[in-house]
Specification:
The chain is an alpha/beta fold. Helices cover 35% and strands 23% of the residues. It has 2 domains: 241 residues, Glutamine Phosphoribosylpyrophosphate, subunit 1, domain 1 (4-Layer Sandwich); 341 residues, 3-Layer(aba) Sandwich (Rossmann fold), CATH 3.40.50.10490. The structure holds fructose -6-phosphate.
Length: 608
């Protein structure tokens, strides 16, 4: 969603702000802006609707060598995307950029009679509120920010500057991430560490309820209650290569193609092939605690939810006496669900910042249930608030559509399930095939990506005029079909939905006509024959089927087939999902849409 950057130091602030905002583009936005201050406090405010390129056009005519500034990419919540609604927002001497939502902005606004509001945003209300404490020298900047934030209900990550003191930035967070980069004679601010890569490796991640007063040589952190906080400086692990396209046309294709390597990172040091076991250090549960687990709640949104569904099917296969319930975070947080005491909750999130998933984590913790994070972003809020966790270590995922994270989330959760099964004394013979296939997966992914790409591209191009699609699967191929449909709809805007094959006759079969094509996931296995009968039913009604299968002598009269050659039996659906990922990618290219930044979507959904 929205992105924040800030700079105070000896270098040109406009340069850092623009390059930092470009790094955050992937998060999704619809307007952008920066303000910089000269040494005597003269502000240069530049804002533009649409892409950062529009902002750069304005910048070309307004170059300044200012050494301090803040910037923002806005994803509209209150008020349409427009220059007036773009951040930074001004009130008197104060400029503010803000991520999050001020829920009580209407009440606050009604009381701020002296300020003439120009935008429809909640952020301008915050700027005016800070100014009401700041003007006439009532409070120094950081105290004025604290006074204002004490009255605010909602979520925020903010950066504030004043034209009266052009050598300081005040930042604060509650529910919206902020990182402070500590450089040599410079301090950098960002809502996501990727904007800091290449500038500094030293970062301080602000916690909820903290306010930092930042100059080029100092960072002073306090809580909103004025208690001093000793800053923990951490190393930023991401390197430049990880956030560049690396020769690919799009981040999405890069991220699909790098899955053999990203999955290897997930597995590193965690699989003992000789013993047929897995070892996860992060969850921090004793063997006795693992043995007691009877119930797993898996919480996530979108792709993370699908990963949880698929992992749940696997975990139930090899773990005795366990039930797995995978839930959508935005629903679960408002359900009055009782969680049995012998449960553990897996909190799944690539970004580690998804508002609904975070809210569930906090609710579940209140019930005294142990929470384990399946998270990618190191140091993210979810990663810091869970009781234990397993990082998936896939590196930055820049494209809005999640691909490599899905694969590794599934495998990390299955490994957690195997850890439980090992503790419960499940026979090694039952678990070994899972461990062996997990160890083989990176190579298998590599070979499937290598062999299917041309076929998938052709088939996708041939289907580019379709606007409707149905994805079908049974058992583990069903959540895989759900993920495939999500990928297609979010980037190619095809109305794609997934159904369990067995559900067809209960309604969706009525849809089959020339407007739709059907993507049928048909892995070899016990339920293959049943799925074939369902395919026949679709064919009999004139369906346009693309079959994805690893069955060698597949001979159904479907329109297109993507053949997968694999020695895997258990994790074939993960390979089939690669086909869905590639299909969505090439379909989107063929339709001529923006692959990495689909309309209306943001990478990290930090508001409800
Ligand atoms: C789909 C997609 C989203 C995310 C969802 C959860 O491609 O990217 O559905 O999976 O917003 O995000 P995280 O995993 O960051 O919590």
């Amino acid at each position: 969603m929205c992105g924040i950057v800030g700079y105070v130091g000896n270098k040109n602030a406009q340069n850092f702000l623009i390059s930092g905002l470009k790094r955050l583009e992937y998060r999704g936005y619809d307007s952008a802006g920066i303000v910089t201050l000269s040494a005597d406090g003269e502000p240069t405010l530049l804002r533009a609707k649409g892409k950062i390129a529009n902002l750069e056009e304005k910048l070309a005519k307004n170059k300044r060598d200012d050494k301090i500034g803040i910037g923002h990419t806005r994803w509209a919540t209150h008020g349409e995307p427009s220059e007036t609604n773009a951040h930074p927002h001004q009130a008197g001497n104060i400029y503010v950029v803000h991520n999050g939502i001020i829920e009580n902005y209407k009440e606050l606004k009604a009381a701020l009679k002296e300020h003439e509001f120009k935008s429809e945003t909640d952020t301008e209300v915050l700027a005016a509120l800070i100014e009401s404490f700041y003007k006439d020298g009532k409070y120094p900047l950081s105290n004025a920010v604290v006074q204002a934030l004490k009255l605010v209900k909602g979520t925020f990550g903010i950066a504030v500057v004043s034209t009266k003191t052009p050598d300081e930035i005040v930042v604060a967070r509650s529910g919206s991430p902020l990182v402070i980069g500590v450089g040599h004679d410079e301090t950098l601010i960002a809502s996501d560490a990727s904007a800091l890569v290449g500038h500094t490796k030293q970062a301080i991640y602000l916690n909820d309820g903290e306010v930092a007063h930042v100059t080029k040589n100092s960072v002073e952190i306090k809580t909103l209650n004025a208690e001093p906080v000793s800053a923990k400086v951490e190393e930023i692990e991401t390197n430049l290569a990880a956030i560049q396209k690396g020769g690919y046309d799009h981040f999405l294709l890069k991220e699909i193609m790098e899955q053999p390597e990203s999955l290897k990172e997930t597995l590193r040091g965690r699989v003992n092939l000789a013993a047929g076991t897995v070892h996860l250090g992060g969850p921090g549960l004793s063997v006795a605690e693992l043995r007691q687990i009877k119930h797993l709640v898996i919480v996530g949104c979108g792709t993370a939810y699908h990963a949880g569904l698929l992992a749940g099917y696997y975990i139930e296969q090899f773990t005795p006496e366990i039930t797995v319930e995978t839930v959508i975070a935005s629903e679960y947080r408002y359900r009055n669900a009782y969680i049995p005491k012998d449960s553990v909750a897996l909190i799944v999130s690539q970004s580690g910042e998804t508002a609904d998933t975070l809210a569930c984590l906090r609710e579940i913790k209140k019930q005294g249930i142990k929470t384990i994070g399946i998270v990618n972003a190191i140091g993210s809020t979810i990663a810091r608030e869970v009781d234990g966790g397993t990082y998936v270590h896939v590196g930055p995922e820049i494209s809005v559509a999640s691909t490599k994270a899905f694969t590794s989330q599934v495998v990390a959760m299955v490994m957690f399930g195997l850890t439980i099964a090992q503790a419960k004394g499940v026979k090694p013979g039952t678990l070994r095939p899972y461990v062996e296939e997990i160890a083989k997966l990176p190579e298998e992914i590599h070979s499937v990506l290598d062999t299917v790409v041309e076929d998938v591209k052709k088939i996708a191009e041939a289907h580019k005029d379709y606007d409707h699609a149905i994805y079908l699967g049974r058992d583990t191929a069903y959540p895989t079909a759900m993920e495939g449909a999500l990928k297609l709809k979010e980037i190619s805007y095809v109305d794609a939905n997934a159904y369990a094959f067995g559900e067809l006759k209960h309604g969706p079969l009525a849809l089959i006509d020339d407007r739709f094509f059907e993507m049928a996931l048909l892995p070899e296995g016990d339920l293959y024959d049943k799925a074939v009968s369902n395919v026949q039913e679709v064919l009999a009604r004139g369906g346009h089927i693309i079959a994805v299968t690893n069955v060698e002598n597949f001979d159904l009269p479907v329109e297109s087939v993507v053949k997968i050659t694999t020695s895997l039996e258990i994790f074939t659906p993960i390979l089939m999902n690669l086909v869905s990922q590639l299909f969505a990618y090439y379909m989107t290219i063929a339709k001529g849409y923006n692959v990495d930044q689909p309309r209306n979507l943001a990478k990290s959904v930090t508001v409800e």
